[in-house]
Amino acid sequence: MSIYATLWRLQFPRYGDDHTACEWVEVVAQGVPGHIGTPSPGHGYESGDPFADFLPPPMVLAPDDQAERLRAVVFVRDGTPKDGQRYVDTLLVLTGEEYEKSTFDEIHGRICDALRGARPEVVMEAWGSDGSVRLMTRDGSSRLLNPEELRRSRG
To answer: What pLDDT sits at residue 150?
Structure first.
């Protein structure tokens, strides 16, 4: 049985930046309910939290708490493999409280940053009269996409 509940699935630019000819990837937000790993009596984790090495700290629940809050939200690319319950390559892990307090814009930016990795952010594109597109990045570098590349990307 999985410790995760799918909260949503959305398309994001594969490498963090939306631009002409970018590829898209589905990102999945996986919620971890508050009772998972809790040291509170009656939930089966009295001997320890088996998920402590890859999730934020567990929540202590009051006896009448139905654990409706989330312990964590884990963001992954669709199809990311797991080793047991641990995702092999997460994009971002937030506590349930961080997730609740964050705007979608903040979460979107953090996911795009994770997808981008060490690549410089695309900040502008310029269209040439020949149908080419020059992608310019925050660090001043650029990349030219010729018309054939653009046709292939549109499939």
So the answer is: 82
Query: What Å distances lie between residue 107 and 34, 88, 99, 112, CA to CA?
Result: 20, 21, 8, 9
Q: How many residues does the chain have?
A: 155
Going from N- to C-terminal start, the domains of the chain cover 5-119, 120-155
Q: Can you read off the two tokens belonging to residue 62?
A: 């009051």
Positive or negative, the Cα torsion across 14, 16, 22, 24?
A: positive
Which ranges of the chain does DSSP label H, i.e. alpha helix?
96-101, 104-116, 147-153
AA identity, residue 105 = D
Residue pLDDT, tens place only, 22-50:
999 999 999 999 999 998 888 888 889 99
